[in-house]
Please model this.
Amino acid sequence: VETGFLATQFNAFTTKQRMMKRRVEKLFQFEEIDQVIVRETIEKEWPSPNGGVFVADPNSPVLPLWHKWTKIARSIFISDEVVLHTMFPKFAPLGKIAAMMGGAFNTSVKFQAKGLADADVRIWHFHGDSNTRPNKCQKAVDRWLPVYDYCIEQNIGNVQEWKDEITNKHLDRLLKSRKQETMWC
Model:
């Protein structure tokens, strides 16, 4: 990575959107976090990154500061993601951070960017267990469940050895309802 840190823009979201701005504003309560950077994050338009998909040089200056500020702000919702937003005004002018724009590498099934075709999406983001909650987003379930079934069938990652040790109330409910549907056929 030439810049040292490459994040992915979540959909086509930016820091100018109300939800993102409100999340970043919560960082004002932590005086140990550079308040000038927090202000610049919400006053200028930066890509809204998601910390779930990124690549970094282990020596990137972004990593230690992101870690430090995330620990400081750990009491807020998704502090790692919120703090990652502030890394753009801090490091982009120095050429130390960049983002894959447009959402193709981090797309929400529920909030897919306009003009981004399903075929162009490389990474689907199933936030809030949307992939296991038909009432929340049937499209997410329809997209994810066949892949889950394939992984079980092919025993990808030896999943059959450990899958029953993992519980998720939404997945458990989905699998149970599917089992009941098959029993009545």
Q: What stands out?
A: The mean pLDDT is 93. Residues 22 and 92 are 22 Å apart (CA to CA). The chain has two domains: 5-100, 129-183. The beta strands are 5-14, 47-56, 98-100, 107-108, 124-125.
